[in-house]
């Protein structure tokens, strides 16, 4: 196999060990993989995946290949690739990978197009860059696409906007909307891995710091909870009154970003929107403020505005850039404003990605079987798939639950019996 682009094939053995370590914490995906090996439900299906190239993703890709799929993989973020994992997939599994950690924007889109050269029947996306490129630049490939799956909030937002505009040319399953994804991956996975990335990048003590979380969706909930658990004084900023009220009731201070910017020590955006931290926020931040992002794209922080304000900038630690301003203040940006949990750490723990990627595998199987009957819009993961994943996960954890009796089922489905 010669058609791939990775950093160094000599890293493959380390990648294999990393993949095997992750697999131990992914019992749901392992069970799906065993069935896929027997049934081969994806035989003959070409799949182009645009995902974070991590050990957990490798186990998903191997599962799809064992199900008969012809898979290629490219990175969904320039800083999220684990180069040893990419090398292992190429060397040990003969799966074409186009991903190098730290690749520039030109290379990133070159890799996206290499994945589309595979002429996919199904796309797997994390952020909708693959689908967007397909619709804008590679429309000749659209007629053979059955459908796709989307991993993350930002991508689902983009795809729903495409569907609303009548631009989406095939159905997509929003894996992100599955309860077994956003309840666990977003809340527990993002919460833990984001703090892991911030701490690895800075080696700072969070206890006693004012930690500002922008956005109180599932990712924001997890991040705020875990920052408080480490002793930080947590502030939440929001634009939606419902999650803002929830944050207040959960015991957090809630205020506009312009107020929080004046008192925060560490900032992290998890909104999916752009310019959440903007020029006027930088203008009032403390000297030494640390700014990071755990939303999919680095547009959540207006880095061009900070660039224009700075008289100089320098890399003071790996993944920590210092911007020196005219008034003598210094502001630090972590991981180029990209996903800090993947830029300087290893992303979500395998045990939560187990459920997310189980949704990907079963969602893709569902799309192959049903895609031609579906409309050109964004669909939620079928509830029966979501519940089955939860059931298998509990079984793997050794947790038993009750079962309704026939009498209880009848009662819940009747209306005659009252007080």
From TrEMBL:
<keyword id="KW-0378">Hydrolase</keyword>
<feature type="binding site">
    <location>
        <position position="238"/>
    </location>
    <ligand>
        <name>NAD(+)</name>
    </ligand>
</feature>
<feature type="binding site">
    <location>
        <begin position="152"/>
        <end position="154"/>
    </location>
    <ligand>
        <name>NAD(+)</name>
    </ligand>
</feature>
<feature type="binding site">
    <location>
        <position position="186"/>
    </location>
    <ligand>
        <name>NAD(+)</name>
    </ligand>
</feature>
<dbReference type="InterPro" id="IPR020082">
    <property type="entry name" value="S-Ado-L-homoCys_hydrolase_CS"/>
</dbReference>
<protein>
    <recommendedName>
        <fullName>Adenosylhomocysteinase</fullName>
        <ecNumber>3.13.2.1</ecNumber>
    </recommendedName>
</protein>
<feature type="binding site">
    <location>
        <position position="54"/>
    </location>
    <ligand>
        <name>substrate</name>
    </ligand>
</feature>
<feature type="binding site">
    <location>
        <begin position="294"/>
        <end position="296"/>
    </location>
    <ligand>
        <name>NAD(+)</name>
    </ligand>
</feature>
<comment type="function">
    <text>May play a key role in the regulation of the intracellular concentration of adenosylhomocysteine.</text>
</comment>
<feature type="binding site">
    <location>
        <begin position="215"/>
        <end position="220"/>
    </location>
    <ligand>
        <name>NAD(+)</name>
    </ligand>
</feature>
<comment type="similarity">
    <text>Belongs to the adenosylhomocysteinase family.</text>
</comment>
<feature type="binding site">
    <location>
        <begin position="217"/>
        <end position="222"/>
    </location>
    <ligand>
        <name>NAD(+)</name>
    </ligand>
</feature>
<feature type="binding site">
    <location>
        <position position="126"/>
    </location>
    <ligand>
        <name>substrate</name>
    </ligand>
</feature>
<feature type="binding site">
    <location>
        <position position="185"/>
    </location>
    <ligand>
        <name>substrate</name>
    </ligand>
</feature>
<dbReference type="GO" id="GO:0033353">
    <property type="term" value="P:S-adenosylmethionine cycle"/>
</dbReference>
<dbReference type="Pfam" id="PF05221">
    <property type="entry name" value="AdoHcyase"/>
</dbReference>
<dbReference type="InterPro" id="IPR000043">
    <property type="entry name" value="Adenosylhomocysteinase-like"/>
</dbReference>
<feature type="binding site">
    <location>
        <position position="181"/>
    </location>
    <ligand>
        <name>substrate</name>
    </ligand>
</feature>
<dbReference type="GO" id="GO:0004013">
    <property type="term" value="F:adenosylhomocysteinase activity"/>
</dbReference>
<feature type="binding site">
    <location>
        <position position="151"/>
    </location>
    <ligand>
        <name>substrate</name>
    </ligand>
</feature>
<keyword id="KW-0520">NAD</keyword>
<dbReference type="Pfam" id="PF00670">
    <property type="entry name" value="AdoHcyase_NAD"/>
</dbReference>
<keyword id="KW-0963">Cytoplasm</keyword>
<feature type="binding site">
    <location>
        <position position="341"/>
    </location>
    <ligand>
        <name>NAD(+)</name>
    </ligand>
</feature>
<keyword id="KW-0554">One-carbon metabolism</keyword>
<dbReference type="InterPro" id="IPR015878">
    <property type="entry name" value="Ado_hCys_hydrolase_NAD-bd"/>
</dbReference>
<dbReference type="GO" id="GO:0005829">
    <property type="term" value="C:cytosol"/>
</dbReference>
<dbReference type="GO" id="GO:0071269">
    <property type="term" value="P:L-homocysteine biosynthetic process"/>
</dbReference>
<comment type="pathway">
    <text>Amino-acid biosynthesis; L-homocysteine biosynthesis; L-homocysteine from S-adenosyl-L-homocysteine: step 1/1.</text>
</comment>
<dbReference type="InterPro" id="IPR042172">
    <property type="entry name" value="Adenosylhomocyst_ase-like_sf"/>
</dbReference>
<dbReference type="GO" id="GO:0006730">
    <property type="term" value="P:one-carbon metabolic process"/>
</dbReference>
<feature type="binding site">
    <location>
        <position position="348"/>
    </location>
    <ligand>
        <name>NAD(+)</name>
    </ligand>
</feature>
<feature type="domain" description="S-adenosyl-L-homocysteine hydrolase NAD binding">
    <location>
        <begin position="186"/>
        <end position="347"/>
    </location>
</feature>
<dbReference type="InterPro" id="IPR036291">
    <property type="entry name" value="NAD(P)-bd_dom_sf"/>
</dbReference>
């Amino acid at each position: 196999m010669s058609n791939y682009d990775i950093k160094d094939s000599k890293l493959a053995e380390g990648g294999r060990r990393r993949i095997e370590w992750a697999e131990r914490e992914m019992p749901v995906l392992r069970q799906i993989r065993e069935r896929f090996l027997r049934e081969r439900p994806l035989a003959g299906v070409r799949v182009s995946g645009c995902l974070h190239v991590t050990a957990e993703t490798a186990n998903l890709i191997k599962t799809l290949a064992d199900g008969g799929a012809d898979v290629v993989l490219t990175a969904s973020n320039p800083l999220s690739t684990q180069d040893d994992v990419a090398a292992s997939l190429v060397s040990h599994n003969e799966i074409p990978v186009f991903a190098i950690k730290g690749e520039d924007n030109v290379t990133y889109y070159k890799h996206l197009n290499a994945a589309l050269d595979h002429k996919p029947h199904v796309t797997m996306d994390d952020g909708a860059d693959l689908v967007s490129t397909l619709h804008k630049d590679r429309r000749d490939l659209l007629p053979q696409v059955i459908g796709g799956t989307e991993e993350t909030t930002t991508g689902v937002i983009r795809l729903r906007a495409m569907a609303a505009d009548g631009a989406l040319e095939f159905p997509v399953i929003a894996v992100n909307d599955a309860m077994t994804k956003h309840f666990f991956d977003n809340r527990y996975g993002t919460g833990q891995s984001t703090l892991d990335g911030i701490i690895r990048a800075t080696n700072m003590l969070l206890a006693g710091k004012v930690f500002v979380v922008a956005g109180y969706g599932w990712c924001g909930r997890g991040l705020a909870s875990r920052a408080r658990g480490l002793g930080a004084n947590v502030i939440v900023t929001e634009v939606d009154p419902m999650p803002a009220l929830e944050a207040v009731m959960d015991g957090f201070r809630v205020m506009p970003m312009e107020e929080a910017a004046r008192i925060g020590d560490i900032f992290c955006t998890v909104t999916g929107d752009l310019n959440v931290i903007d020029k006027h926020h930088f203008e009032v931040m403390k000297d030494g403020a640390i700014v990071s992002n755990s939303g999919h794209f680095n547009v959540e922080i207006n880095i061009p505005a900070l660039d224009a304000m700075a008289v100089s900038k320098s890399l003071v630690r790996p993944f920590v850039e210092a911007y020196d301003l005219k008034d003598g203040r210094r502001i630090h940006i972590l991981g180029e404003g990209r996903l800090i949990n993947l830029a300087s750490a290893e992303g979500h723990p395998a045990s939560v990605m187990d459920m997310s990627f189980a949704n990907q595998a079963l969602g893709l199987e569902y799309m192959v079987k049903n895609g031609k009957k579906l409309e050109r819009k964004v669909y939620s993961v079928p509830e029966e798939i979501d519940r089955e994943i939860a059931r298998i996960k509990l079984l793997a954890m050794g947790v038993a639950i009750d079962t309704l009796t026939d009498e209880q089922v009848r009662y819940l489905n009747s209306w005659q019996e009252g007080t």
